[in-house]
Amino acid sequence: MTHLLSVDDLGGASGIEEVLRLTDSFVEVSARSIPKVPALRGKTIAWLFYEDSTRTRLSFETAAKRLSADTMNFSVGSSSVNKGESLRDTARTIEAMGVDAIVVRHGSAGAPHRVASWVDASVINAGDGWHEHPTQALLDCYTIRQQLGSLEGRHIAIVGDIKHSRVARSNVLAFSALGAEVTLVAPPTLLPPSVDTWPVKISNDLDAVLPTVDVVYLLRMQRERMTESLLPTLREYTAFWGLTVARAALLRPDALVMHPGPMNRGVEIAAEVADLPRSLIIDQVRNGVAVRMAVLYLLLGSGAELGTTAEERVRA
């Protein structure tokens, strides 16, 4: 694998599981008093972020530094993009400086794919428009596996703004590949037109779904991507599809709550629910570093050898 642009690039369940097994090694590295290994010493990784980000950007930067890679930060606000430079010219300029990988986040679907066609460096999709966010899906799979042992046969409800969510698209691919049953819960206006082709069930009744799930995964209302009025008010959305305290009481005692962040507390999730012991939101952030270490190592370190030999090299 040269690039990670989509969950499909991992080649199904076996590829996803290989990344998750390698992540175990990097979780151990992150727990050390000095959480650093020389696995990517001499490699250079650049961040090409055209959208704001906290978790994803800091997570990738931390992952690269723990692997001893050099990093190159690109800020759209202070770059030649403001002078009209194209994405292609920006990407090729960065590559000419000797980078081995470019992590791309862009508001347009397909932008990382275009960058990958223009450069020889490895390209990682850190979120493109409504399309995908594969490393988020990987860290979510790892977090669930950490708590439940496996996704096989588990019932996961993804709730909220499915239409505009790249996280939902990647998670549906990854969760279903690992054997989970996925139900999308949303008002009809927040479902994508192509949802009939997805390997999921559809429901508009959150109260009916909650008692049956192992994991409820809340999505943020992405008002910045909405070009039309899809809901009367946020108050109405919360009344029907928000995970309120009363609604959380419908969950089984061992059911888990997840959210990719940033959260709109009081809209898709009540503040009290976000802070419950069953909430894995901070675990998701923590695991994101180890998962992204695994992805970077896969692309730039071990190449194709991801079995025992790779794991032994990580621990060295």
Largest sheet, if any?
Answer: 5 strands, parallel
Helix content: 25-40%
Share of β-strand residues: 5-15%
**In order across it, which strands form the biggest sheet?**
7-6-5-8-9
Continuous helix count = 12
Helix/strand/pairing class, anyone? alpha/beta
> What is the domain total for the residues?
2
Number of strands: 9
The end-to-end distance, rounded to whole angstroms, is: 24 Å
Short description:
The chain has 316 residues and is of the alpha/beta class. It has 12 helices and 9 strands.
Topology:
Blueprint: H1 13-30, E1 44-49, H2 55-66, E2 70-75, H3 87-96, E3 101-106, H4 111-118, E4 122-128, H5 134-148, E5 155-159, H6 166-177, E6 181-185, E7 201-203, H7 206-209, E8 215-218, H8 234-241, H9 245-248, E9 256-258, H10 271-274, H11 281-300, H12 308-315
Parallel strand pairs: 1-2, 1-3, 3-4, 5-6, 5-8, 6-7, 8-9
Description:
Helix 1 packs parallel to helix 12 (308-315). The chain folds into 2 domains: 7-133 and 284-315, Rossmann fold (3-Layer(aba) Sandwich), CATH 3.40.50.1370; 134-281, Aspartate/ornithine carbamoyltransferase (Rossmann fold, 3-Layer(aba) Sandwich), CATH 3.40.50.1370. It has 316 residues and is an alpha/beta fold. The strands form 2 sheets. The chain has a 5-stranded parallel sheet with strand order 7-6-5-8-9, covered by helices on one side. Strands 2-1-3-4 form a 4-stranded parallel sheet, sandwiched between helices. Helices cover 39% and strands 14% of the residues.
